């Protein structure tokens, strides 16, 4: 049985005001100034509503909740309206958390609009900047970004990461950096699987050259990768090879350590005895002699190259050494497809 709090006189007044403004919004005023005024009132009223509201407050919220997701309002073309609507919906998500206020399809649309709205953070002087910060910070605090994982919005999550790393500025409020770090860390920690698409922009951001080109983006990427080093390490080796950069091009400390930890395994005598390491004094000219059928199959089907190695090289720690040789050889073969000399 669910028990609701008895509303106070302040809450009763707030409920009445919410009903009035919500019903007015349902009528969709044609004049944009009137629409903006109503949305501003809704936003201010919602800010006073606490989480776990009373039943009567829940009823008072319904008109506004319905109005905000009508096509006329949610898909309005004016940016002023878009930002105010998202700010109101973010408040509603805060109030209803951890439950979501709308069905799956509507939530997907809301998240798409939200990620697009984050672009407004790139200009501190923009009149939408403060609203965008509020939306970002609230999403981080109530963890509503995790709903994107439940809804399998994988491509949208990647876009969000890319947006954060692209728009972060040194003159942003510390709240912006902190909220982005929190969101990205939570998403990675709660993900069942880390895709190459998600990890690649992170690793690109922490390359040493980016420390000079975009130091704040480098710092954000470094913080997130460091926070998630344990979760990310199983994925780092293959991703580093896939994006074609050496481990020593990444930043130092925990980020660099996490990125090249697998590379260093073959050098750690406490983990692997030297006489068990497959090492070569020079690159193998023809890798086909080691895995002739598997290698050719991979090239034809574009299957994950390294997934076949354990079937050919029984000792897994040897795979790490062979991976690098395969990558180098693959690049050479790509440049000279008929096997001719350079």
UniProtKB/TrEMBL annotation:
A Gene Ontology BP annotation from the UniProt entry: DNA repair
Q: Where in the cell is it found?
A: Nucleus
An example Gene Ontology cellular component term from the record? nucleus
> What Pfam families has UniProt attached to this entry?
PDS5
User: Where is it mostly found?
Assistant: nucleus
Write out the transmembrane intervals.
none
Keyword set includes S-adenosyl-L-methionine: no
Query: Which UniProt keywords are present, listed alphabetically?
Result: Cell cycle, Cell division, DNA damage, DNA repair, Mitosis, Nucleus
InterPro entries in the record: ARM-type_fold, Pds5
Q: Which PANTHER family match?
A: ANDROGEN INDUCED INHIBITOR OF PROLIFERATION AS3 / PDS5-RELATED, SISTER CHROMATID COHESION PROTEIN PDS5 HOMOLOG E
Q: Identify this protein by name.
A: Uncharacterized protein
